[in-house]
Amino acid sequence: MSLDQEIYRQRRQKLEQLRELGEAPYPHRFERSHALAAIVEQYGAKDAAALEQEKVRVKIAGRVLTLRPHGKAGFAHLQQDDTRLQVYIRQDAVGEHDFAIWKLLDLGDWAGVEGWLFRTRTGELTIHAEKLRLLAKACLPLPEKWHGLQDVERRYRQRYLDLIVNPESRRVFRLRDGVVRSLRAAFHERGYLEVETPMMQPLAGGAAARPFTTHHHALDLTLYLRIAPELYLKRLVVGGYERVFEINRNFRNEGISTRHNPEFTMLEFYEAGSDYRALMEWSEQLLARVAREAAGGEKLQFQGRELNFGAWRRLSLRQAVCEYWPAAAGAAPRLEELADAAAVRRYLDAYNRIAAPGERYSPIDAAQQPSPGEQIVALFEAVAGDELFEPTIIYDFPLAVSPLAKSKDDEPDWVERFEIYAGGLEIANGYSELNDPEEQARRFRLQAEGEAARVDEDYIHALAYGMPPTAGEGIGIDRLVMLLAGAVSIRDVILFPLLRPEGVEREDQE
C-alpha cells in the first residue's frame, strides 16, 4: 500500500468517527459573516486593547493549512482565497463535541469557525473559537508545501492542487481577470457593443489555420470549431453595428508549444470609420492602460528584462528585416531592394547559407514560400520576430499573406496591416478591412485554389450591401497575460491547458 493510500484509509476512518459523533462531514450550508480578507483589512491594524474592547464576533470558513495541537488547546491557520488567518481552539471554550472535531481535523480540510478576534502574545491577529464545524474532509494529502508539487506537468494536470499550494498561480489568474476587466471597460467607454458569434461554423474562415471538425447529426452537417470570428463580426458592421468586439475562444488543430495552445482566447474588434493607423494609435494607448490597471504599471519585468508599455517603436516589415539582418549573412539589404522580387530571393538564399537546423537561425524552405511576399515575411519572421522585445508595431505587409486587408494606394501588392510584438511574442494583428466585394471574391477564389478551401459566398454577399471603411484587430489574451504576469509558457496562464492523457502514447502524425 502506498503512502497516499494509507493516508486515504486513515482519513476515511476519521470520517466514520465524525459520523459517530453525529457530525455531517459534508454539510449543505455554512453562512459566513466575513471573508478573511475583509477581516484583515478592517481589523489588521488594531492593537490588542482595541480588539479586546470591541469584542468583534466573526463567523468564517477556510481550508486548514496548519495544525498545532497543544493538549487541550491548539492553533490552526485557515486560508480563503489569498488570505490566511489564525484560529485558537480551547476545549473549555468550544466544548467536548467541537473539540472532538478539532482532534479529527487534517491538513487540507475545510472548517468553519465562529468566535471573536484578539491578538496573541506574539501579536498575531487570531480568532478565539467558540464553535467549530467540519465543512469538507480532504481524504487526500496536500503536497508538502511547494516541495511536493515541483512537477510542472502535474501543476497543469491538477490545477486545483496548484492553486491550493501556489500563491503565484493564484496571482496569475487574478491578473488575467484584471486584464479582461480592463479591456472590457475600455471598449465600453469607447462606445463598442459586445457580441457573441458562432463557435461552430459551416466554413472555417477568417484566418489561415487547420480547423477542428465535428458533425451535427440532426442536420447531417459537417461543422468546424471557430478558428476566428472575423467574418461574422464584419457582417455585423454591415448590419449597422459600427463598433463591435468579442472576447472569444478560438480553436486551431495545429502544434502545441510554450506559445501555442489549440484552444485560446482572443479579443477581436472592428471600428467603422477607422483605418490601420488609427488602430495602431489606439492599441498603444489600450495596452498601456491594461498594463497599468491589471499589472500595476506600464513598466514591468519579463524574462529578466524591463518591458515598457509606455514606450513604443514602429517599423515597417521591410525596415525590420534591414535592421535585424544577421551580420553573418553579409551586408544588410537596403530598403528599396526589398521591393524587388529577385533581390528578395537573393537575400533569402544569403540567409539560408548561414542557417542551420536547431541553431539561432533556422533555414527557410524556399519551396514553401512561392511568392516574393511570402518570402519576405519568412525573412522577417526568421531574423526579426524573436528580437522584438520592446513593444513594437510592425506595419505594411504583402498582399500574398493578407487576403482580408485593404491594399495600399501606392503599392497594390502591399496592404494596410500591422502586427504588435512585445517580449519576442506576437500579441496582436490588425488591418484596414477590405470592403470591395468583387476584390474580396477574387482573393478568396485564389486562396481556395491553393488550399482546396470553400469560398464564403455569404460573406461576399454581405459586403455587396456595403461595409463602410473599417479597421479591425485581434489581440491574444493568453500571450498578453504571459507578458504582464512574467510567465514563460502559455500553459501557465491557461487554467486547464490541453495535455495528452497520462499513459497514452503519441499517435503517428500525418
Can you give a write-up of this model?
With 510 residues, the chain is of the alpha+beta class. It has 2 domains: 3-142, Nucleic acid-binding proteins (OB fold (Dihydrolipoamide Acetyltransferase, E2P)), CATH 2.40.50; 165-324 and 384-493, BirA Bifunctional Protein, domain 2 (2-Layer Sandwich). The protein is built from 15 helices and 18 strands. The protein has helices at residues 3-20, 36-43, 48-54, 91-103, 152-157, 159-165, 167-189, 230-238, 276-295, 317-323, 341-354, 372-383, 437-451, 457-463, 477-485; strands spanning 57-70, 73-80, 83-90, 110-119, 125-136, 193-194, 200-201, 213-216, 221-225, 243-251, 263-272, 299-302, 305-308, 313-316, 392-398, 414-422, 425-432, 470-476. An 8-stranded mixed sheet has the order 6-10-11-18-17-16-15-14, with helices on both faces. The longest helix has 23 residues, at 167-189. The protein is elongated. The two termini are 43 Å apart. 31% of the residues are buried. The model has no long low-confidence stretch (mean pLDDT 93).
